[in-house]
């Protein structure tokens, strides 16, 4: 088993660092636009496997955004600096003051008014985490009067479920762990989020399960602060090469996330 695990790690490492090496280097102007401080500051939501999680035993950091940010920094030959946040709301608010250079977040037309985006790199399933003993068993049980759905405020799931659920009540928390706590304490009946987050948090709620089916898809892309046009052009090229070269899939595999597929090439 250890040999198999070592081989898989080695293969994923080669995909993340080897296949990506065929990319075109950025011009000095593009590098300056993308990394004005001389390093690539990557905004990441800690605890979200689509961004970054930390192994409690080894301390190893991994996650789709973490790996892609590290690979982008390698390609443009600047230091990689992860900038951690407890929630996507805190991440986006901090980005408005220039605290990071790129981030990997859910895409929406509203966010596109404030940030420049690459094409999508992932499509992520929305879902529900149901506590043990719940009478809710199907998607059809969700949108009923009296059903309370906990979500992380100002997140893609908040926007999606607020828009699509007509009868259920939204219970908003400042973070995903906060939304889970609302379910644990009985303030909410279920937690709504993207499935990778729900699978990650389900271990903290014994007897819980992620409901079968999907109410929708959350598109994810790389965000760049506006006004960095030359940098955005290169960032968009990077994402397309990362998809076609297997780098995005390798990052998804290393993070061990379910309910996620690589977005089609643009």
Write the layout of secondary structure elements.
Blueprint: H1 2-17, H2 28-34, E1 40-45, E2 53-54, E3 61-62, H3 64-76, E4 80-85, H4 88-95, E5 102-106, E6 115-130, E7 148-152, H5 156-164, E8 169-173, H6 176-184, E9 190-194, H7 195-202, E10 209-210, E11 217-225, H8 229-244, H9 247-255, E12 260-262
Parallel strand pairs: 1-4, 1-5, 7-8, 7-9
Antiparallel strand pairs: 2-3, 5-11, 6-9, 6-10, 6-11, 6-12
Written description of the protein model:
The chain folds into two domains: 2-123 and 218-262, D-Maltodextrin-Binding Protein, domain 2 (3-Layer(aba) Sandwich), CATH 3.40.190; 125-210, Periplasmic binding protein-like II (D-Maltodextrin-Binding Protein, domain 2). 36% of the residues lie in helices and 25% in strands. The protein has helices at residues 2-17, 28-34, 64-76, 88-95, 156-164, 176-184, 195-202, 229-244, 247-255; strands at residues 40-45, 53-54, 61-62, 80-85, 102-106, 115-130, 148-152, 169-173, 190-194, 209-210, 217-225, 260-262. The strands form two sheets. Strands 1, 4, 5, 6, 7, 8, 9, 10, 11 and 12 form a ten-stranded mixed beta sheet that branches. Strands 2-3 form a two-stranded antiparallel sheet. α2 packs across α8 and α3 (64-76) packs across α9.
